[in-house]
């Protein structure tokens, strides 16, 4: 055989095969990127529910027959689309001080998106490897995909302080009955069920005949079951309202103006003017760092607050705080409570701080400045805490970013009657960020069975009842107040009692059911075959 013939018969086919494999991988990565970007349309403010099965089924189908490494790349492309379009609003915070941080906006968001995309990549690779090693039916494949996805989401919510933003289950937050499942299994459990049902159409598309019909009916049954269970919860009686009137103040101070010394008096005066408008209230609520200074050190400011508070009323406001220590001054991001005398009743220090916003990780090694103004890094508080205030139901406090963490908002030993979420989304302008942040707050209400009251500097301030429904809101960019009664709490949910153990129970129960059904079907097929042969 001459060299030309050897090339045509051996080398050339191998080269063409490699080109085809690379083209196939590139096509699936492109499909994965587009499907990941599509998931952003499933979250608030759009919440297009029909795109949920399209996006996740596209990834599910695109992973078939791929090796571990290739599946990782396809999953990473999906994550890059999901986070690249889903968290672009973070770039807005870099432009608050554009002269210092503006050039970092695109590289920072691109790098964060690429890093977060590793988690969908892990899910995809784990699914593809297990599916490739063992033959399994469509149902088990869907369960494996949903399990892999949920494990990766859970890891994303915990690794390196965690970032559980836009969990798959949040596609259901605008659908009252469907989101109620989180009361039993939490947001991670809701993601598991959402993804499982979402990939059933993909499995049906790859099946044929009777199996296709069975899988399609199972998808419809899953949606119907979640809707029915959620509807029953919505119809159940909540506890009696506590009879407490709230006033939420949204000062709407742009972030670039908030800390300018020349604007301090105008900012404070705006909050006082809004707080003293006609109307009755028992609790006055100001957002995160509403007062641009150390309020406990400012006797005059506290006297002005006391004059604005009717007798027996309480103010909860976000303020920075500082405490001298042997190692120097420590700074805290806090919510402090004041009575009508201007005295501090109690307070809470934020324990889940924002990396690079409130502190710089590995500060000794990373030559990076914080995005927020201040004299030093914030120190984390001890953890979730329930505050007892005179004449006010017990309250838990979550400051800004803390509200996104399932199961880490409420003190398990002292259950509160409501959650106060003081936040400042002014960093993100009129982007989709505040809407997505609000979605997390609504899911905490469902999980805990507690109303969540949100005071935001520039919006979105809201009153959220214990089923996650928005009772009242002030949108981004509005200046004003919300006067509303505190909604009633519900009895402790299963998730509030057992946390993410409910997720584990859900996954184990689902696999037990599926494996039993698979074994039963296999036994029937074998029995039928034996009977046919013996007959």
TrEMBL record:
Pathway: Protein modification; lipoprotein biosynthesis (N-acyl transfer). It is found in: Cell membrane. GO terms for molecular function: acyltransferase activity. The chain crosses the membrane at residues 31-59, 71-91, 103-128, 135-155, 182-201, 213-232, 501-523. Its EC number is 2.3.1.269. Keywords: Acyltransferase, Cell membrane, Membrane, Transferase, Transmembrane, Transmembrane helix. It is a multi-pass membrane protein. InterPro entries: Apolipo_AcylTrfase, C-N_Hydrolase, C-N_Hydrolase_sf, LNT_N. Pfam families: CN_hydrolase (PF00795), LNT_N (PF20154). Its main location: membrane. Coiled coil: none annotated. Residues 249-488 form the CN hydrolase domain. Catalyzes the phospholipid dependent N-acylation of the N-terminal cysteine of apolipoprotein, the last step in lipoprotein maturation. Belongs to the CN hydrolase family. Apolipoprotein N-acyltransferase subfamily. This is Apolipoprotein N-acyltransferase.
């Amino acid at each position: 055989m001459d060299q030309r013939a050897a090339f045509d018969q051996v080398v050339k086919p191998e080269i063409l095969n490699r080109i085809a494999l690379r083209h196939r991988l590139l096509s699936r990565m492109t499909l994965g990127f587009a499907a990941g970007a599509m998931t952003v349309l499933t979250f608030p403010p759009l919440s297009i529910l029909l795109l949920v099965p399209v996006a996740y089924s596209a990834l599910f189908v695109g992973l078939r027959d791929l090796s571990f490494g290739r599946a990782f790349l396809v999953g990473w492309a999906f994550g890059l689309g999901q986070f690249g379009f889903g968290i672009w609003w973070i770039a807005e915070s870099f432009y608050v001080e554009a002269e210092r941080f503006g050039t970092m906006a695109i590289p920072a968001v691109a790098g964060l998106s690429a890093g977060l995309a590793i988690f969908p990549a892990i899910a995809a690779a784990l699914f593809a490897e297990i599916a490739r090693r063992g033959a399994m039916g469509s149902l088990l494949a869907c369960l494996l995909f949903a399990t892999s996805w949920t494990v990766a989401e859970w890891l994303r919510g915990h690794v390196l302080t965690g970032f559980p933003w836009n969990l798959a289950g949040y596609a259901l937050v605008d659908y009252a009955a469907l989101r109620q499942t989180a009361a039993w299994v939490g947001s991670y459990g809701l993601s598991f069920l959402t993804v499982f049902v979402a990939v059933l159409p993909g499995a049906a598309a790859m099946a044929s005949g009777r199996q296709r019909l069975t899988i399609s009916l199972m998808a419809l049954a899953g949606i119907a079951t979640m809707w029915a269970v959620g509807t029953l919860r919505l119809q159940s009686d909540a506890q009696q309202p506590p009879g407490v009137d709230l006033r939420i103040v949204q000062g709407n101070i742009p972030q670039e103006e908030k800390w300018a010394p020349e604007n301090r008096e105008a900012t404070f005066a705006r909050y006082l003017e809004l707080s003293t408008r006609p109307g009755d209230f028992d609790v006055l609520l100001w957002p995160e760092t509403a007062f641009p200074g150390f309020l406990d050190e400012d006797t005059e400011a506290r006297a002005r607050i006391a004059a604005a508070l009717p007798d027996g009323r309480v103010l909860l406001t976000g303020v920075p705080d500082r405490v001298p220590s042997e190692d120097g001054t420590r700074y805290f991001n806090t919510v402090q409570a004041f009575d009508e005398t201007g005295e501090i009743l109690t307070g809470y220090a934020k324990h889940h701080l924002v990396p690079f916003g409130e502190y710089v990780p590995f500060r000794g090694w990373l030559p990076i400045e914080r995005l927020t103004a201040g004299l030093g890094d914030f120190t984390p508080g001890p953890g979730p805490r329930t505050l007892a205030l005179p004449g006010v139901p017990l309250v838990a406090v979550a400051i800004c970013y803390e509200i996104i963490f399932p199961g880490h908002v409420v003190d398990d030993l002292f259950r509160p009657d409501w959650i106060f979420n003081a936040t400042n989304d002014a960093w993100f302008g009129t982007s989709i960020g505040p809407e997505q942040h609000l979605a997390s707050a609504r899911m905490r209400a469902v999980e805990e069975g507690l109303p969540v009251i949100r005071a935001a500097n520039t919006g979105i301030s809201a009153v959220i009842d214990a089923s996650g429904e928005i009772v009242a809101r002030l949108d981004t960019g509005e200046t004003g107040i919300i006067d509303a009664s505190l909604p009633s709490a519900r009895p402790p949910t299963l998730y509030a009692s057992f946390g993410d153990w409910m997720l584990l129970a859900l996954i184990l129960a689902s696999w037990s059911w599926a494996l039993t059904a698979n074994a039963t079907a296999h036994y029937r097929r074998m029995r039928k075959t034996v009977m046919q042969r013996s007959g």
